[in-house]
Amino acid sequence: MRPEPSLEGWPGAAGEGRGALQVPLADLQPLLALAQSTGAGDVPARFGLSPDRTAADAGGTIPLTDYFRFWRAMKQASREETLYLSARPLVTGTSDFVISDAARTATLADGMERIARAYNLLHGGDYNRVERHGRALVYFVDDAAFPYAQSSETYIQLCLEGVLLFLHATFCTLAGEDLTPMLRRVHTRRPAPRDATPLALWDAPVTYGAAGFGLTYDAAIAARPLTEGYGLPPDHAVHNRLIALIEARQTAPAPAASDLARRAREALADGFQDQAVVARRLGVSVATLRRRLAADGTSFRGLRREVLNGAARDRLAEGSSVGDVAEALGFSDCRSFTRAFKAWNGVTPSGWRERNCSLKDEPSGRRQGDPHAV
């Protein structure tokens, strides 16, 4: 299965802040256990991750910046760059070598392809690939056959989403600029959205339940020339770039009301239906979200209705059953979905599909109400 490369309808990243970016403590348990078993138990303590805290605060989180600093400290302590995620360990210095080798190429696309080939050789399989599809340039990680040494799927998803952020920071470092505005879509195997993941760094829409993990950029970045020298070892330079990207995201100015409404629609379309969760992702309070949406002439309830109704119509037009649509959109049963749909459209889902699909099937110029019909 290939990632969806089309750029049609994809909004660019706007760069507005979403507040503090977090990682759930529960997702870190395999890494914390590894720290204890390898004699690196002092490393978690530096980041306030003592066993007592993690046991008492199972629903807690840590800032995304601390997660990546913790990850880097653990790599240095273990001297193994995958932190035993892979059955084929990578010694300290591997990332420096891979990034330095990619920097010797002429363009960013060449550098991305060099990185993919290098990691495929190091891991012993064709897991990484770079593809071009029209106006899209895709870096994709197909990990279906990857030799994982860890069994926790949640932990694997967290690690690979972190890898996507590290790759993005690598590409930014090679190009000498922030490429975030050129990011068009993100792909993850995580089956459904949730509030706290590394992917909250970006505004780009996310494809959940994908065949792997990937980044799709506007193909215009392919010809970007590469910069020379970073003043630091490459891996350290990329780490600093990543931390800077996260911190810039957290301190970005609040969006205008109209932009906030757009971002709220996108969050709703991504599956976040709770107003408090959406507000937190946008970096504002619930009260502020309500006030700014009202200034734009709308409300959270109105946006939610708009997004759900649009998704329902699309699925009905594609031929999905009423029951399947109700389940996909989170309704408790067909009856509640039908009641809501009729309130939105003045007709039942079946009636809407019968009317609209029959209109589509009629020849042009012969549709009911067409003044030019003969």
TrEMBL record:
Top-level taxon of origin: Bacteria
Q: Which UniProt keywords apply?
A: DNA-binding, Plasmid, Transcription, Transcription regulation
Q: Which SUPFAM superfamilies match?
A: Homeodomain-like (SSF46689)
Q: Which GO terms describe its molecular function?
A: DNA-binding transcription factor activity; transcription cis-regulatory region binding
Amino-acid biosynthesis is among the record's keywords: no
| Gene3D superfamilies for the chain | Homeodomain-like
InterPro entries from the xrefs?
Answer: AraC-type_N, Homeodomain-like_sf, HTH_AraC
* TM segment ranges: none
User: Region Disordered: what ranges?
Assistant: 355-374
**Key word DNA-binding present:** yes
Q: Start and end of every HTH araC/xylS-type domain?
A: 258-355
- A Gene Ontology CC term for this entry? cytosol
Return the protein name: Transcriptional regulator, AraC family
* Natural source organism: Phenylobacterium zucineum (strain HLK1)
Highest lineage ranks of the organism?
A: Bacteria, Pseudomonadati, Pseudomonadota, Alphaproteobacteria, Caulobacterales
